[in-house]
Amino acid sequence: GHMKSQKENIRTALKGGHRITPFDALQWFGCARLAARIQELRREGMDIVTEMKHNRASAEGKKSFACYSMRRE
């Protein structure tokens, strides 16, 4: 189904060495719940690293977001 394809797209991108943020997932795959997909991939054994990034200060103050990548050996 639809969820499966999103998860597979994310898996493929991570395996290809891409770093993915929630914004990327929305832009590339129409996936609004990246964290949930990442949890599923981790349960399947993928070694995914989460880095917290900070946007430059905006009107609303600092925003932080997760950036996911596969751990490199």
Search tags:
single chain; 73 residues; alpha+beta; two-stranded antiparallel sheet; 3 helices; globular
Structural description of this entry:
The chain is of the alpha+beta class. 44% of the residues lie in helices and 19% in strands. It is built from three helices and two strands. The chain has a two-stranded antiparallel sheet with strand order 1-2. Helix 1 crosses helix 3. The chain starts with a helix and ends with a strand. The mean pLDDT is 90.
The count of DSSP E runs of length 2 or more, i.e. the number of strands, is 2
> What's the total helix number?
3
Largest sheet: 2 strands, antiparallel
Distance between the termini: 32 Å
Biggest sheet, spatial arrangement of strands: 1-2
CA-atom Rg in angstroms:
13 Å
Note the overall shape: globular
Strand content: 15-25%
Which structural class best describes the helix and strand composition?
Answer: alpha+beta
Elements, N to C (H/E): HHHEE
Give average pLDDT, whole number: 90
Percent range of helical residues: 40-55%
Low-pLDDT segments: none
